[in-house]
Amino acid sequence: MTDIAMHGHGVRGMKREALHSFNGIGDPGKFGVMFPDLLPLHVGDDALFELAQAMRDQGDVGVDPDPAGDNEAIPAGYTYLGQFIDHDITLDTTPLDQQKADPKATDNFRTPALDLDSLYGDGPGIHPYLYQRDPTTFEITQQFLIGHTGASNNEKNEPIQSLRHDLPRNQVGHALIFDERNDENLLVSQTHLLMLRFHNAVVYWLKERQPSLQGIALFHEARRIVTWHYQWIVLFDFVERLTEPGLITRIKREGRRFYRFKKRPYMPAEFAAACYRLGHSMVRETYSHNRAFHPGSPRIANGTLQALFFFTGKSGKIVGELAPDAEALPPNPQQKLPSNWVIDWRRFFDVAGQGGENFTFNFSRKLDPFIAPSLHTLPGLREDPTEQQRRDANLAFRNLRRGVQIGLPSGQDVCRAMQIEPMSPDEIATGPDGEVARARPA
Fold first, then answer.
1. 0.85 cut: is pTM over it?
2. Where mainly found (predicted)?
3. What letters, b where the CB count within 10 A reaches 16 and e where it falls short, cover 370-380?
4. Domain ranges in the chain?
5. Residues 65-68: contacts with CB within 8 Å, 24+ apart?
6. Which long-range contacts (CB under 8 A, 24 or more apart) does 33-38 make?
7. Most buried one in 174, 248, 407, 435, CB count within 10 A?
8. CA 420-425-427 angle, 5° bins
C-alpha cells in the first residue's frame, strides 16, 4: 500500500544534518511529552479497528455530506491550511510498524517553530532545485519555481489554456518542493502553491521599493516578511478560529501553564499525535472546487475527495512524461494537472469576490470523532489487501494505533492533569463510536 503521510510520516532515509532550518538552528530536535508521569493507554488493535470503523461520517464515498454536519464558523480552506502548518512543524519518518513507545527518542525532521522550513528548505544556496534561474546569467534567483497546468476545457466545453497554477514538477510528475507531503491532495498542494506565489510577489514588491536590496539579502528579507505574515495568520486567524474566544490573548498575558522546556522547544507528542489530528474531522467528502467541479450544474463532475487525491503526483496519477495519453480523462494517468482543476479560493476562504453563477461556499465539517468516508480507505490500497493492509488504509485506525504505539495516556488522564473535568463514561458512550467504547472499556 502506498504510504500516505497525512500527518507526521514522510520521506525515509533523510539525514538530520541536511534538514536544519535556514535560520541557523542546526538540529530541529526530537519529539517530547508534556505529561511524562501519566501511564500509557493500552488497547489492542482489534478494539482500535472496531472503534475506527465507527468513526465514519454519515453518507457514502463521493456523495455530498449532510449540511447539518458543516461547521459554519470555519471555512474549508482552514482544513488544508492546518495540514500545511502541520507539515511545517512535524515530520516523523518512522514507519507505522516501527513506532517507538518513547517519543523523546524520535527525531522530528521539522523545526517546531513556524519558520516555513517546509517551504524554503535551506534556501537557494543549499536547495537550488526549488528556485528559478535567471535566463540570462543562469544564476539561481530568489524566487520559487512555479509549474504549469495542462490545457483543458471548462464546464461549457470551452478551451482553457495552460496556466502557471501548479507546483513545479520533474519529468515524471514529482513535485519539486521541500516536503513531498504537500502534494498528497490537491487542496494542500494548491495551498503550498499559494505560499510559493506569495513569496515571489514579495520579492517583486521589494525589488520595486528597495532596488539596492539584492542577492541573498533580498531573499532573507522576503522570507522574513512572508514568515511574519504566516505567523500572524496562524496565531490570530487559524488558532483563534479553532479555540475558545480570547484564549490567545490570555496566553500572551498570563504565559504557558503546561508546555515547558529546558533548552530548546520540542514538539509535544500529545499535540502531534492526538490534539492536532482534529484536522481529519474537518475534511469534507465533496467540495465546490471551482466552476467546473462542484455539486450543481452545469459542471464536468463533482469535486470529490477521491478526485482531489487523484490530481497529485504523490497520491494520484500526475505522472509527467510517463503518461501514455496526455488527452486522457480520469482514471487514466495525467501528464499535468488539468487547468480546469485550478482552485477557486473564494469558495474556501472569506475573501472578496464571492458569489456569481453556480457559486457554493465550502465550510469545514464539525469538530467531532467522525471523518469523511473516503478517509477510511486511503489511496493506494491494493485490490486483494491483507487484513493488516486494510486496517492501515483506514486513517482513523492509523491515528488511534499510533497514539497507543507511542504510549500516549488517555484523554481523561490528561484532563485531570490539566485540572479539567473529563468526560464521564456516560458522555463518552453516546453515538456510534461511544457504543463501541462502552462495549470495550479500556
1. yes
2. secreted
3. bbbbbbbebbe
4. 16-409
5. 65/284, 65/285, 65/286, 65/365, 65/372
6. 33/103, 33/104, 33/268, 33/269, 33/270, 34/258, 34/259, 34/260, 34/268, 34/270, 34/271, 35/258, 35/270, 35/409, 35/413, 35/414, 35/417, 38/409, 38/413, 38/414, 38/417
7. 407
8. 75
